[in-house]
Design brief:
Radius of gyration: 38 Å
Helix content: 25-40%
Structural class: alpha+beta
Number of helices: 6
Strand content: 15-25%
Oligomer: single chain
Mean pLDDT: 80
Distance between the termini: 99 Å
Shape: elongated
Low-confidence stretches: none
């Protein structure tokens, strides 16, 4: 085994050279030549093109109405609880967010419930702002669209 190791070490190239690729002479100009610089033709092409020819004529803007009909409004239900204390606790959380919640009691076939509502909101954008505030605090809401 020792002789095999010596034979193997003897077949390795000397440490100073890196093999046959390093013995070849470098070609003239490869070391002194810099890579070509990129060309940016769009600086000259853009001013020459007419933008008006390529673009279609703009359509007249339609007015966006966010308001619902006068008889419709939005409510957000921020919770439904069996105990009044739980509903008051949710109401306090919403008051700290700067919202105006109210608690309504309802009696039905399945017992008495205390529901926490936000609103009424006359536009969808106002309702969306309130909903994003509650979502940031991990409070799930239910959107209710009601008519007067």
């Amino acid at each position: 085994m020792f002789l095999s190791l010596l034979f193997y070490l003897g077949t390795l190239p000397p440490t100073g050279s890196t093999g046959p690729a390093s013995t070849a002479e470098p070609t003239a100009g490869t070391d002194s030549q810099e890579p070509p610089k990129p060309r940016f033709d769009f600086y000259t092409m853009l001013p020459e093109q007419s933008m008006e020819e390529d673009l279609p004529a703009p359509e007249p803007a339609k007015p966006v109405t966010e308001t619902t009909s006068p008889s419709e409004y939005y409510l957000l239900q921020a919770g439904s609880f069996r105990q009044r204390e739980d509903a008051d606790r949710r109401r306090a959380e919403l008051l700290l967010l700067g919202l105006e919640p109210n608690v309504r009691e309802s009696n039905g076939d399945n017992g008495r419930w205390f529901r926490v509502y936000l609103g009424p909101f006359d536009t969808r954008s106002k309702m969306s702002k309130a909903r994003s505030l509650t979502a940031a605090q991990n409070i799930d809401t239910l959107v209710l669209k009601r008519s007067s």
